[in-house]
Amino acid sequence: MKYHLLIVDDEVLAIEGVKSDLDLNKLGISRLHTAINVRQAKDLFVRERIDILLCDIEMPQGSGFDLLTWVREHHPNTATIFFTSHADFKYAKEALQLGSVDYLLKPVRATDLENAIRKAQDIIKRNSEFNRNSQSHQLWLKHHSFIIERFWVDLINHSIPSQPSAIRDQVELHHIPITEESVFLPILISVQKWKKELNRRDEKILAYALKNSAEEMIIGEGSNGICFHLDRGMLLLIMVANRGTNWEYEHLFRACEEYIDSCNDYFYCDLSCYFGNAVEAHEMADLVGELRRQDQNNVAFVNQVYLHHDNDTSKPHAKLPALSVVASLMKTATKDAVVHEVETILDSLVHNYVINADILHQFNQNFTQVVYSFLNLKGIEANQLFGDEESRHISESAGRSIMDMLIWARHAVNKAMIHAEAIKETEKIVQIVKTFISHNLDQDMTREMIADQVFLHPDYLTRIFKKETGFVLSDYIVLEKVKVAKELLSHTERPVSSIASTLGYTNFSYFTKLFKKHVGLGPMEYRSQNNKDQ
C-alpha cells in the first residue's frame, strides 16, 4: 500500500527540514503534501486522500488539536503524529501516544520520525484489516464517533425524549449502528482533582489523553464501545452488546482500576469510575443521571471504582455535628488547635457515617458561620478579609469533597485568627494607617478607603485610632495635609493653587478657608509672615 502524507507547520523551514529527512521510497510514501495553517490543511483533506497527518501543535490560525478534532470527525481513518517545540509535561509524549500515534519534540531526529511513520502505517493496516472482518465495527467507524457522540449526548440531556419510538426515529435518521437487541453498559469517569495548576490549554491536552487512554484500556480492541466528554472533567464510556450478553464485569472492574492507577501516574489527577447496569437505550438518561448524583455525593473518597448504588449500608447516615467547641477554641486556643478539632470532626464523619454532598454543604455553612461570628466579634469585615481571588476560589470549592473542605477550614481559620491577633497590636495598626495617609495626601481619602488597608470596619478603626492617637481620623488627615502645606509654603515658591491640588483639594477657596482655620492665617499671609521671620 502506498501512503499519502500531509505535513502541517506554520514554519516553512521546519517543513523543509522534515522533508529533507524523509526517504519517501523507503517509507512507501507516494504523495507528500504540505500546509502552513489549519485552513490550508482542511482544503487538502477535501481534495486529496490523506493517510498520515504530521502536525505541529501551536500555530497562529488554529492549533493542531483543533485540526485533529476536525479530522476525527471528517476523516477518522487518518493516523496523526504531533511534533512541537514545547514540552509542557514530561509525560505529554506518552499521553498523546494514546490517541495520536506519537508525540515528537523538535528538532525531530530522522530515526524517530521514521519510526513514528511506520507505527502510523501499522495502525492503518490493522484498522483496515479489522474493518474488513467486523461489519459492526465498520459501521461505527463509517458514521464516525462524532455523530454517535452527539446522539448519546442529546439522549442523556433529554434533547431526544427517552421513549423507544423517539430513539428509533433518531437511530434511523442518523444511521446509528444499534438495534432493538442492543443493550448498553455506562461507566461514568469523573476527575475529582487535578494535582497541579492547569491552564485551559493544558487541561485540554490532559482531557484528550484521559479519553484516549480510557478507550484503549477499558474498551480495548475487539470490543464495541464509545467514550466521550459529558462535561468538563467528566467522561462517559458506553459498552455496547446484544441482549443476553454475559458481561465480563470482573475484567471491566480490573481494567478501570488499572486505568485509575495510570491516570494517577501520568495525567496529574485523582478520579473515580461509576458502573451502571446493562440497560436499553431509553433507560440510559435516567441511569446516567443516577451515576452523576452518585459522583456528586462521593465527597469522601478518591481513586475508587463503584458499582451502581454501591453504598456502605453498615454505616448510619450522618447528622450535623455541633461546632460549639470550634467556636470556643477560636476565642481561647491556637489556630492549630482549632484546625485539629475541625479535622477530627470530619474524620469521624467519614469513618463512622455515610456522608454526602448535602451534609458537607450544611457543615460548610455552619463552619463558615462560626468563622464569620468570630470575625464580627473582633470587628473584622469578612468580605474584606476573604475578598481576594485565592480565598474566593478555596471557599467556592469547599463543598466538593472532604479534602476541599479541610483546605478551606485551614485557610479560613489561619487567616481569621492571624488577623485577629494582629488587631491586638493597635500600635502597629495605627502606624500602618499613618503611613498610608502620609503616602496618599494627594487623594481625597475616606474612612472606608483607609479601613480597607487593615481589613477593619471603619467605625472600629476610628475608635482604636482615636484611643491610640487622641485624634479623630478625619481631623488627623487634615492636620497632616496642613503640615505639608506649611512646609511647601515655607520652602518653595509654588503657587498656592498648585499646593492645594497636590494635597487633593480641587476647590481653592475651600483649601484657603481650611488652612486659615487650623493655622490662623491664610496661605499667602503665612508665606509672607514666614519669609519675614527668616
List the domain count as a whole number.
4
Largest sheet: 5 strands, parallel
Strand order of the largest sheet: 2-1-3-4-5
Number of strands: 10
Strand content: 5-15%
CATH superfamily of the largest domain: Nucleotide cyclase, GGDEF domain
The second-level CATH architecture of the largest domain is 2-Layer Sandwich
Poorly predicted segments? none
Compute the separation of the termini in Å.
103 Å
What proportion of the residues is helical, as a percent range? 55-70%
Mean pLDDT: 89
In the CATH scheme, the class of the largest domain would be Alpha Beta
In angstroms, what is the radius of gyration? 34 Å
CATH topology of the largest domain: Alpha-Beta Plaits
Shape: flat
Number of helices: 24
Query: What class, by secondary structure content?
Result: alpha/beta
